[in-house]
Amino acid sequence: MNMEMKRLRIDDALYETEIPEDLMKSRYRGIKDSREISAVIPGTIAEVKVGKGDRVTAGQVIMILEAMKMFNDVEVETDGTIAEIYVVAGERVKKDQVIARLER
């Protein structure tokens, strides 16, 4: 069985682990990191409502994503501070693309 080495971050610790090649080819991608905010559908960032360093609370809208002529709120799942914003208004994004990251 072919194995692939991957790095896994849990909180602030980094681990290396072997993952079977057939699992890597499957649709399974592991548990989503709640600090990463991703686009749930492809579209265009219509508005960025926060900046790096801003404090946010669970449920707060941080961006507006336009897709299929509809405007969709992008909300954070947990309280935290915006660590990075990877997109700007007008930028096209793909489904599951990480668009921002939180620090807790």
The level 1 CATH classification of the largest domain is Mainly Beta
Order of helices and strands: EEHEEEEEEEE
Global structural class: mainly beta
What's the name of the CATH homologous superfamily of the largest domain? RNA polymerase II/Efflux pump adaptor protein, barrel-sandwich hybrid domain
Number of strands: 10
Tell me the Rg in angstroms: 16 Å
β-strand amount: over 45%
Provide the residue-averaged pLDDT: 87
CATH T-level topology of the largest domain: OB fold (Dihydrolipoamide Acetyltransferase, E2P)
List the total number of helices.
1
Shape: globular
Question: Which CATH architecture of the largest domain is right?
Answer: Beta Barrel
User: Distance between termini?
Assistant: 39 Å
Give the neighbour order of strands across the main sheet: 3-10-8-5
Textual characterization of the structure:
It is built from one helix and ten strands, in the order ββαββββββββ. It is mainly β and 104 residues long. The protein has two domains: 1-31; 32-103, RNA polymerase II/Efflux pump adaptor protein, barrel-sandwich hybrid domain (OB fold (Dihydrolipoamide Acetyltransferase, E2P), Beta Barrel). The strands form three sheets. A four-stranded antiparallel β-sheet has the order 3-10-8-5, with no helix packed on it. A four-stranded antiparallel β-sheet has the order 7-6-4-9, with no helix packed on it. The longest helix has 5 residues, at 21-25. The protein is globular and about 45 Å long. The model has no long low-confidence stretch (mean pLDDT 87).
Characteristics of this structure?
104 residues, mainly beta, OB fold (Dihydrolipoamide Acetyltransferase, E2P), 2 domains, 4-stranded antiparallel β-sheet, 1 helix, 5% helix, globular
